[in-house]
Every structure is written in structure tokens, then in C-alpha cells.
């Protein structure tokens, strides 16, 4: 178990290093950092001085080591466009994105799991077909289109829910702002959370259904039937528990992709999170922000991956205990 | 040049054999489970018909479309913001109304779909060629090559496709500069989307190659001295075409959606040559002022297109994988 | 005495898009209380489907299309799903081929046992746990009390099959259906498991339907044997009769194909030419006729019935005292092979 965790950590570190390299190459070689930082009236001497100060004349591996060292201390340099430290910009936007992602993930799981179980157990009922049809539409509709349609219906036509922004937020401890404590904050969260969570919801539903069908075909389910166990015990005890192992994995991994997908939702709803910041950076070729965002997402992904692996171990005794007999 | 004639005659024989085999294959197809499941799924038939109509309409947009939305002579700003023809203020010449510049919405949709489909097909083709080749190489060569390719795939899988595409787009933008970027935008989009989707092909193909490579017919092919490349493309590839086709179909829907998303985010197709995504972005600005048709109709078109292609992909996957039925 | 299980003219069909396939056709047999009936045949002969049909767990779209199945004097093939659940595990226990996949990997052995016990008996959890431990002791699992909290993957294949047997016996059923219970096990363990199964069922007076393709297991374990071919009954009778004096040409071929330790080691084993037909392509008349060395003009034309002989009951026209007889030469060969030819050819003296 401990060795397993260590091995995973080393793998994660490897992935992070590769991403850091990509991030560094982007940062260093896409566009000239000096030109981005100074105005047209800067003399060549000043430029050369700045180049020396920034360490751009050092060997590339020294620069990379410095980049990694700085990144580990959350120092990602200054934004070319906004002229503020990138770390500060991201920190101010992080709570909005994380809150949105978290609420979306909960929504996706709470709705997707029961729908998946139902459609797996009762394959041919009318409701199952309806759920499947909804899931297909959910997968086919681009996220931004869902957002626009929701705004069109609930904000423009019905006027029930706000169409942009986070509403009123409350600051906690000076480093975290939350919209979860005010009414307008909560109301503002509804449409973006549904928009962001819908795709993951359909994904979870289809996954649970697929796993459920797979598990129901196994010998141990047939044997459980042959032992005369009740439907309930078979479906919700034996089948569901075995379904959950892969579902935990995928759902965990989806949290990472929810955070990345929030770029789209944040754009549609003008949600002041990291995604919007990143998109503006792409449009304005603000490389430091892009590099930092890439690193941050990679970090969140590897972290979640790691936690999921540990959870997996907790659920499956075959990994947890190892075998004592062949 | 006896070598070449030998190759040539072999190739000709191959073609001839392929021909008869082709006819046989067609007859077999009509009797196959795939065709059976197609005929017995009204939803799939519907999806196929809708896909065909949309693709044809896009292909022949210059003939089908009532107006040419990119001909400055034929559009007039005076015609802007007409609602659809069935509304009180509708204008008979503009079935789905007009946009802010007086362009016919139906015509812009037809032309826009053309661009969406072109980018979609091109990027799927790129992803497929890249993924299949890398998968074949990784599976067949093995060793360090395999490790490197699959590690890259692992790292890329860490990120959602849309993020990869955004990054490639951003880097291209920075390297090219704004003017040059507009000229190469289609190439960049195809590259960005294509590079985001190759991993799945590579993994599938590699897996199949590992299974197939140990089968006797491949060993036999090796024994009679066929070159590895020949074995790979003539013997192993046909066996992995089914799954690759399924991935490609589902990817087509994904690629169209990704292109639309990038364009909607303002980093894709420019508004001078709008794709469906660009149209939706432009129209989105007018959603609140009541001109809903400018964004909703392209949106519906995009949704129907993606849905139809997805339905075909779903059916194909189930039909080729009898275990799921 | 009422048989424990009585299968009457059972017919199982599997609907396909080319029409229904008949997997089991007009199959009848009884199992007496305490009796072990071996069911043999090649893969695809319908052995497992018969077992699944009896316990009501045919894989869809397969279905019982005719006949009846009686457990004691109660008809069970038309019960509601809920009523059938009360039979399964309670009055009929089932053991599957692969102990590695029969147990849910995520549940402790003890939980799977008590769950089964509590489903069929009104007991306190404590009493159920005690019974679970007793069962494990009975099937010969060392340190049973401690092993209750182990997971399946912590047991070896043979030990797992013992657990599966304990699960099948948990509610003291009248009948155990054992579907190839030793096929997936090491040869060294097979004999132990068969001996265990035989002992436990004899002690409890449980009837057993032992499905296998291993004639050796049948010869050692079963009281009677039922030979299936292409979903139809070929021959049924007491084990020593069927092994020593097979009456159906197929059974004869099956017995001749068993290697023997006694006798001439250089003697070639006989084999049956051809292979069993697929379900969609069962020939007209007797299903075995294209492979049969005693075939005559009646065989491809009519379906044989079941005919009584002194050794067993079998489905072959050679044994039919009425109807058109075989040519003299065929009859003579059959008699030489030990078949009690009843259909005496005209003009032949036997």
C-alpha cells in the first residue's frame, strides 16, 4: 500500500516535470519575453541589461531549473498584458472556478448516478429510453450552446435567474471569496453549474449504465441469483458496489476536466474565474498566464489522479490486502 | 526492372482480387449483422438521412443558399435584423431572418456549416492518420519507441482536448502574429483539433496490434519474409479498422463541437468567414435585445448535426461490438 | 416415491432473427431422492442450459417453450419471479464451473454466507454467523472462524470451490445442480472436491444433478447417467450399464473414446467421425445420423422415440421393436457391438 503510493507519487512527479518543460518552453521561446515587458522607447542597452537581469543569457537547463524552482514557490512572473504578478491574478480568480466546478461535480454525480443505475437495471422501460435520449442530447450539445439556451429560456424569456457574474460574494479570511453564502451568489450559481455539469452528468450516467450491464453479466451475479438473493440485494448490494470501483475512478478524473471545461462556461456567463483569465490570455498572447494555467491544471489533475488511486485501493480489497493464496 | 514489374503485377492482381472480394463484401454486407441492425433502427436511419442532407446542403451551399452572404453587392445593411419569415415583421426573402449586417441567416448557416464540416473532417483525418500510424508503430516496434509514444499519450490524456487545442491555438497565435494568423487560421484549427484527438486511435490500434501480432497469420506472414511495413498495413491494419471507424465517427461530432467551441470563444474562425460557432458568438450579443434568431438557428443546426453524427457513431459502436447488444 | 426432480418433455428455445433455435428438445428425466444423476455430452449439447432452465436462470432471450419441471410434486417452471427466488438457493442449490468468478470479489466470505442464510431462514445475525462457520467447517476449510472475514481472492481455487459448495448447501436444499464443478480446478484438487460433494450430499440425502463432460467423474460419482446430444436425450440409465453396455451408438462412441488404464496401451482409441451439429443445423430425423456407423434408411427420415432395453433407455431405431428394421448386415454389426437390436430384419436369424 505504502509502496504503491510512493510509486504513484514518482509517476505524478514525472508527468509534472514534462508539463513544466512544455510550460517553460512556451514561456521562454514563444515570443521574446523582453519585447513583451518593455516599451518601444527602450534602448538596446536597457534591453540587454533586462535580458541579463532576467537570466535569459544563462544556459537553457539553468533557466529551466530556475523556472521550476520559482513555480514551486508559485512565482510565475508578471502578466504581459495586465502587468501584475500572475500568481496574484490566479489566486484572486481561483475560488470562483473551484466553487463552480465543485457544485457542478456534485450536481453531475447526484443526478447521473441514479439515472445510470436505473437505465442499467431497467434497460427497456420508457423512462430508460428517455434518459438515454437526454444523455445523447447532452453529449451532442456543445457546452456553450447549453449555456446560451439556458440563458435564453431562464434569463431572457422567464427572467428567473441572472445570466452573468457571481452575484454578491463574501470574503473569508482575506484569501477566499465565496458566493455560497449569499442569496444572489447561490442564484447566480444555478445556471452556470447546470451548464458545466450537464456533460459530466451524461458521461457518468452512460458509464454507470455500461458498468452495471457489464457487472450484471458476471458469474458472481448469476451465482447470487442462484442463491435466491432478493433483487434488491443483488442490484444494490452486489452489482452497485462492483460498479462503483470504475465509476469512482472516472468521476474523480472528471473533476479535473470540469475545471478545464469551466473555461467555456465562464465565458458564456462572464464568470470571473481562472478560465476567463486564461481565455483572455490566449486571445492577448499573454504567455506567463498561459504557462501558469497549464501548470496549475496539470497539478490539479495529477493531485486528483493520486487521490483517486488511493480511493480505489480503499474500495477494492484485492489491492488493499493483496493475496494470501494463489 | 524486374523488381517493379513484379510488384506491379502483384499490385494489379491485388486490385483485381480486391474487386471481386469487394463485390462479395458488398453482398456479405447486405446480409451482415451491421446492415440488419441498421435497417431495424429507425433512429439510425433518421440520423443517416439527416446527416446526408446536412452534408449535401453544406457541400452545395452556393447552389442551395438563397443568398450569397459574402457578396457585398447582394447584402444591404437596410435588411438587418429582420425576424424569421413567420413573425409579424418577417420579410419574405429571408426565411430565418437576417443578422446585424443584413445577411440572410439561412444562407450564413449553410455556408457556416460548410466550414464547420470541412474543419471537422480534416482534423479527424489528421488525428486518425497520426494516431493509427503511431499506434501501429508503438505496438509493432515496441521497446523504447513504444514507451515514448505511450508516455506522450498519457501526458496528453491528462488534459481535456479543448485545453490542448486552446494551447496550440495560443502558441500559433504568438508565433505567427495577428495578421499572418488570420491567413493560416484554418490550418491552425485543424492542427489544434487533430493533435487533441490522436491518443484514442493510438491506444486502440496499439492494443489490437499487440493482440494480432501474436496470431498465427502474422507469424506466417513473417515466415514467408514479408516486410514489417507490409505486414502492418496489409495484415494488421484491416483488423483494427472497425474500432478506428467507430472512434472516427464519434470524433467527427467531437471535432465539430470543438471547432464551434473555439470559434465561440473567439479563438477560432474569424467573423469574415464565419463557421457555425462564429455565427453563434456573433448572435449571442443580440440575444438580450430580442434578436434571438441570429444565434438560436445556427445553434439548433449545430446541435442537430452533432446529434445525428453521434447517433451514427453510437449505432456503429453497438453494431460492431455484439457484446453490448 | 415421488422423485426430487422431474423434467417432462422440456423444450428450450432461443429466438434469433433467423427464427427460434431449439436448444433442448423433448427432454425428460427424473432424479430420485438422494440420487446423483450425471449429465454428459459435448459442449453445446445442452447440459448447462438444462441446469439453467431448471433453476429458472436461462440467459435471455432463451426461454422454456414447452414441457414442465416438477420439484417434488410442485411445478416450478411457471412460477412468478418472486416465488422462484424462494426456490433458488433454498430448495435448489447451484454450483458453477469457475469458483474464481462465482464469488463477489468485494464481499467477505462470511458476509456472502450469512446473506444467503438470512435470505432463506429466519435467524438472528449471530445464529446465521454460527451456521456460516459450521458450513465452512463442514466443507473442510481450516480455521473456519477466522476465514469468515477473508475475501475470495485470499483463497486458492480449490478452497474457493469449497466456499461455493458451502453457499449452495447453506439452506439445506433438496437438490444441488453442479455445473462442471471441477473443470476449472487443478487435477489434484478435482478428486477432493468431487469426494466432498458426494459425501455432503449423501449425509444430507440431497439429490445431485452433476453436469460434466468428464466420464471418469461420472463413473466414480453418479448413480445414473443421462447422455445428451444436440439438445436431445441419447441415452439414460444406471452408470455401470451405460458404461459397460452402451446402447446408443453415440454413447458407445463416447465410451470407446475414454482412455483406459487397464488393457493394451497400444490400442488405438476410437473416435466419432465429424462433430456435433450447431443448433441451427440439426439434421432431420435422428440428430446423430450423419455421424452414425449404423445408419440406415429410417434414420434421416423419422425422429426416433425412447426405447427400453435391459440396460438403459435410449433413442435409436435399432432398439425399436416396431417399424421398419435395419438391413441384416447393419443389425449384425450392431449386435456384435453389444447393442440389443430389437428391430429384427426380415429373414435374418439372430
From TrEMBL, chain A:
Residues 94-312 form the ABC transmembrane type-1 domain. Pfam families: BPD_transp_1, BPD_transp_1_N. It is found in: Cell membrane. GO terms for biological process: transmembrane transport. Its main location: membrane. It is a multi-pass membrane protein. InterPro entries: BPD_transp_1_N, MetI-like, MetI-like_sf. One of its GO terms (cellular component) is plasma membrane. Signal peptide: none annotated. SUPFAM superfamilies: MetI-like (SSF161098). The chain crosses the membrane at residues 12-30, 100-118, 130-154, 186-208, 244-269, 289-312. Keywords: Cell membrane, Membrane, Transmembrane, Transmembrane helix, Transport. Belongs to the binding-protein-dependent transport system permease family. This is ABC transporter permease.
From TrEMBL, chain C:
SMART domains: AAA. One of its GO terms (biological process) is peptide transport. It is a peripheral membrane protein. Residues 5-255 form the ABC transporter domain. Gene3D superfamilies: P-loop containing nucleotide triphosphate hydrolases (3.40.50.300). Transmembrane segments: none annotated. GO terms for molecular function: ATP binding; ATP hydrolysis activity. One of its GO terms (cellular component) is plasma membrane. It is found in: Cell inner membrane. Keywords: ATP-binding, Cell membrane, Membrane, Nucleotide-binding, Transport. InterPro entries: AAA+_ATPase, ABC_Ni/Peptide_Import, ABC_transporter-like_ATP-bd, ABC_transporter-like_CS, Oligopep_ABC_C, P-loop_NTPase. The keyword Transport applies. Belongs to the ABC transporter superfamily. This is ABC transporter ATP-binding protein.
